[in-house]
Amino acid sequence: MSMRATITEAMKQAMKDRAAARLSTLRLINAAIKDMDIALRGEGKDEGASDADVLKILSKMVKQRQESARTYEEGGRLDLAERELAEIETIEEFLPQKLSDDEVSAALDAAIAETGATSIRDMGKIMGVLKAKYTGQMDFGQVGALLKERL
After folding, report:
1. In this structure, which long-range contacts are made by residues 28-37, counting pairs with CB atoms below 8 Å and at least 24 apart in sequence?
2. pLDDT in tens, 49-59
């Protein structure tokens, strides 16, 4: 089942369960996917967003909500921070399982070997390989720091 179909099924179930907060988050996800479809149509790609595109959207949404929650906590608005954290939980249900530190390390080693990277100038190639294989499974901000240490 495609990511889009999984999200649609979850949305239908949330409607049946009358889970308003979950339904709201799922509708936001659906709207972001439709926005991506429209943008891709403008580029001449009529098939719409692929599962990889959906994973990118979901990762971006999680990152946005983490930043918002942090800002709300700093501002003393814990109620809004809690709402953002609840949305993160719902979105993360559709993301692949995060890799452990050992798995991230192994993936870095494999990507470095695959690209034949020898210096920091090859970091873009390595990140490209990692993003193609592990979108949504690792935090690329942390991976960048780890790569700099290794190269």
Report:
1. 28/61, 28/87, 29/57, 29/58, 29/61, 29/91, 29/94, 32/57, 32/61, 33/4, 33/7, 33/57
2. 888 889 889 98
CB proximity list for 60: less than 8 A, separation 6 or greater:
none
Residues present in the chain in total: 151
Q: Are residues 137 and 75 part of one domain?
A: no
CATH number at residue 74: 1.10.1510.10
Using the 3D structure, point to which of 92, 110, 137 is the last residue of a domain: 92
Per the structure block, which two tokens stand in for 2?
């495609």
Helices assigned H by DSSP within 3-122:
3-17, 20-42, 51-74, 78-92, 101-115
Whether this prediction's pTM lies above 0.85 is answered by no
